[in-house]
Specification:
Length: 505
């Protein structure tokens, strides 16, 4: 009964927006068994290695792209579970797609798995397969690109170099600090076999935030790999950790351990500055004036000054949440100023670092993550170039909506024509609807129908999650900034829905 009501609520909110009139076109998904929320959660009896995962991975690897959706649909109809398919999708990407020369590009086949999963979990039961089918097709595209670029495949670990359990952590730290790929691979395997997932990712949170190369993709991969493992089971940690550490060591030119490049400087400086933060820094009070102060600093400060501002504020008794409000708003403001690939990653990187901040049990790591996020935003700003419009998110004025009964429809129609107008109307809408579920549902369905690349899923999953990480008084502005990379109703439908319909026919 609860699922029925949930679905009815979703469809009613969708019907309220003309942009979603095509939602009925997704009815073909009912031919597959719906994915219940509990099926996508890790069960205690699933922690052991599953011997049937390898054949599923091989199915994804070996089936031609034009036949994969049909083959997978058939397997689902005969019992293939959501968790096993998600696990196979991640592992197929890890084994077949090299995170080089940059942790991005074709490697989004791996990075997007968690984003597709988040989109699935936020959807009604009946529609949860659609983002996964999209990710399956995207994997085949990335696999083909990898083959054209040399056909990299993860090799077996050199067992003779794998350190013993007592030595594994120290060996991994030494190898990562020296940017030694061969030693890191063997040590990662040893650490994965001897340590718990929490211990492993406590270490990875720091390495993911260590440098600014690849515009935040390293931090994104850390967060997304842990989140996917939490769903598919930690028995798959070893190959994921080997891929992750290989990605984290990506660099160009001289070994960073022997150089002093800008990408590495904030981390080295912030590690030294942690001791300046007072012990009770988490007990500060919310302060809107401090949020405005931090946001203003992000517009002009360099990376060192931005980190210094965080230390100044929390030592002054300001709650870290007020700083995070500025960081999340600052990332959104960069996107509003100049929509594009660089500011988009300012948003998704901030999402990843905030997830790590919420997840870590280490106070020192928590301090380091917020300082690094503050340092990264000016670096994103600089990477955007000098000729960027001077737009301020906290000065965005709400714009009235012509027909309140069709507000969501109007916003997403405007988005295709004039994103700034859509943003102003979004601000007005959230002020009138503190729980803007109809807007969020519409945004997600339009990604299903009109999204064309991994960034559509990565961005939408990040921003619709971070909406709740922003303090209530800033949520309208944060959501308004999101429209600059969401999909409007006037965009062209993608071909995936038709392909999936045909696969299920």
């Amino acid at each position: 009964m609860a699922r029925g009501n949930s679905r009815r609520t979703f469809l009613q909110s969708a019907a309220a927006a003309g942009t979603l009139a095509g939602l009925g076109d997704l009815g073909f998904l009912s031919r597959l068994a719906p994915v219940r929320a509990d099926e996508a959660s890790l069960h205690p009896d699933r922690v052991q290695f599953q011997p049937d995962i390898e054949p599923i991975v091989r199915l994804l690897e070996d089936t031609p792209r034009e036949r994969l959706l049909e083959e997978v649909a058939q397997r689902i109809q005969t019992g293939l579970s959501y968790q096993d398919l998600l696990a196979a999708l991640l592992l197929a990407g890890v084994r077949n797609v090299q995170p080089r020369p940059h942790v991005g590009f074709k490697f989004h086949a791996v990075l997007v798995v968690n984003s597709a999963h988040l989109a699935s979990m936020a959807s009604p039961d009946e529609q949860r397969w659609l983002p996964i089918f999209w990710a399956l097709d995207y994997f085949k595209d990335s696999q083909a690109r990898d083959e054209r670029e040399g056909n990299w495949t993860m090799a077996r670990v050199d067992e003779g170099k794998v350190p013993s359990a007592p030595q594994a952590r120290a060996a991994l730290v030494e190898a990562m600090d020296n940017w030694d790929e061969a030693a890191t691979d063997a040590a990662a395997a040893g650490f994965a076999r001897s340590a718990g997932t929490n211990d492993i990712f406590e270490l990875m949170f720091r390495y993911g935030a260590r440098d600014f190369r690849d515009i935040g993709h390293k931090a994104i991969y850390v967060a997304n790999s842990l989140r996917t493992l939490n769903c598919i089971g930690h028995q798959h940690t070893e190959p994921v950790l080997r891929s992750l550490t290989y990605a984290l060591l990506q660099h160009d030119g001289q070994n960073p351990a022997k150089a002093d490049e800008r990408a590495d400087q904030p981390y080295r400086r912030n590690v030294e500055r942690l001791k300046e933060i007072k012990a009770d820094w988490l007990t500060g009070k919310p302060d809107d004036a401090a949020t405005a102060e931090m946001l203003a600093a992000l517009r002009q400060a360099n990376e060192n000054e931005a980190s210094d501002k965080v230390i100044e504020l929390v030592n002054r008794g300001v709650a870290p949440q007020s700083v995070w409000d500025a960081l999340l708003m600052g990332a959104g403001e960069l996107l509003m100023r100049d929509p594009g690939i660089v500011p988009l990653h300012a948003v998704t990187t901030t999402n990843a670092l905030r997830y790590a901040w919420d997840t870590t049990a280490s106070d020192e790591t928590r301090k380091l993550l917020i300082l690094q996020n503050a340092a990264f935003l000016p670096m994103f700003r600089d990477a955007m170039g000098d000729k960027v419009p001077d737009k301020k998110l906290d000065q965005l004025a709400p714009e009235s909506i012509a027909d309140e009964g069709k507000a969501v429809d109007e916003i997403f129609a405007d988005l295709s024509r004039d994103p700034m107008t859509a943003a102003a109307k979004t601000l007005s809408y959230v002020e009138a609807h503190p729980d803007p579920h109809a807007f969020i549902n519409a945004a997600r369905v339009l990604i299903f129908l009109k999204g064309t690349n991994a960034h559509d899923y990565k961005f939408s999953s990040a921003v619709l999650e971070d909406y709740k990480n922003v303090s209530p008084q800033y949520r309208g502005r944060f959501l308004a900034s999101s429209v600059f990379n969401l999909r409007g109703s006037g965009g062209k439908d993608n071909k995936l829905v038709e392909r999936t319909r045909a696969a299920l026919a």
